[in-house]
């Protein structure tokens, strides 16, 4: 799967709920269903105001020309070694200069954020969700525990495949794994046709994104836990 197609699978969950990105979720779903990518899908993903700047920054810091390189997509959503190359000062400038975080955060929270970056915060999707305090995208409001859990990418082990429904043992952000049913088929478009019992799947806003390996599960857990530990400092 190329990087653009992979990114679309993660972006689709919040996009279909009108939370992030342009109001083109039917088009995104059509691309996913057809397994196709072109400049049209690329342009749609570039319009995600928080997502795309992160991809640009991770790619630039690692001297990767294409922000949709599969390694960059994996770094942001799952986590990999590309994140380790980005200095705290670079991340801070990204948040203030590119995303203008200071405009929606009081000074004390900006001081806390700077301290977390000095302690090793990385440009993983989970850090932004757990430590920026307010939702980005179309809703300038504070997160709730439920929306944080849905917005962070989590993983589940497939227990049962029943038509469009997957029953998974999902690892939430907090607490032990729990059994949950998620839909892999929306409006006659099937996600993950080849999934089977025992597979691991990444999940974003109750939408299955892709089958992931045990190593990727370990990385997702590692980078999410780091973000969570930093968030807990000022909970």
Write up what this structure looks like.
With 235 residues, the chain is an alpha+beta fold. The chain folds into two domains: 3-131, no CATH class; 150-223, Roll (SH3 type barrels), CATH 2.30.30. It is 46% helix and 16% strand. The chain has ten helices and seven strands. The chain has helices at residues 3-16, 25-34, 39-46, 51-61, 70-77, 88-98, 107-118, 125-131, 145-151, 214-232, and strands spanning 154-162, 165-171, 178-183, 185-186, 189-190, 200-204, 207-212. It has a five-stranded antiparallel β-sheet. α4 (51-61) crosses α5 (70-77) and α6 runs antiparallel to α7. The longest helix is centred in the last third of the chain and has 19 residues, at 214-232. It starts with a helix and ends with a helix. The mean pLDDT is 91.
Helix content class: 40-55%
**Averaged pLDDT:** 91
Please tally the β strands and state the result.
7
Q: Any idea how many domains?
A: 2
Strand content: 15-25%
Give a summary of the structure in a few sentences.
The protein has helices at residues 3-16, 25-34, 39-46, 51-61, 70-77, 88-98, 107-118, 125-131, 145-151, 214-232, and strands spanning 154-162, 165-171, 178-183, 185-186, 189-190, 200-204, 207-212. The protein is of the alpha+beta class and 235 residues long.
């Amino acid at each position: 799967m190329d990087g653009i197609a992979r990114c679309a699978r993660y972006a689709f969950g919040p996009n279909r709920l009108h939370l992030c990105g342009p109001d083109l979720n039917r088009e995104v779903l059509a691309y996913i269903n057809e397994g196709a990518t072109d400049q049209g899908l690329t342009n749609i993903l570039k319009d995600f105001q928080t997502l795309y700047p992160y991809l640009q920054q991770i790619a630039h810091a690692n001297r990767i020309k294409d922000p949709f390189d599969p390694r960059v997509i994996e770094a942001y959503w799952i986590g990999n070694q590309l994140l380790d190359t980005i200095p705290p000062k670079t991340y801070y400038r990204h948040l203030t200069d590119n995303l203008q975080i200071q405009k929606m955060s009081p000074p004390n929270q900006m001081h806390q954020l700077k301290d977390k970056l000095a302690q090793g915060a990385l440009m993983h999707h989970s850090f932004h969700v757990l430590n920026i305090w307010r939702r980005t995208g179309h809703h300038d409001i504070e997160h709730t525990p439920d929306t944080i859990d849905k917005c962070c990418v989590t993983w589940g082990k497939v227990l049962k495949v029943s038509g469009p429904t997957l029953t998974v043992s999902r690892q939430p952000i907090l607490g032990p794994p729990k059994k949950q049913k998620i839909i892999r088929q929306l409006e006659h478009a099937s996600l993950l046709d080849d999934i089977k019992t025992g597979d691991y799947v990444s999940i974003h806003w109750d939408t299955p994104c892709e089958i992931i390996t045990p190593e990727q599960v370990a990385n997702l857990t590692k980078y999410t836990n780091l973000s969570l530990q930093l968030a807990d400092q000022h909970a």
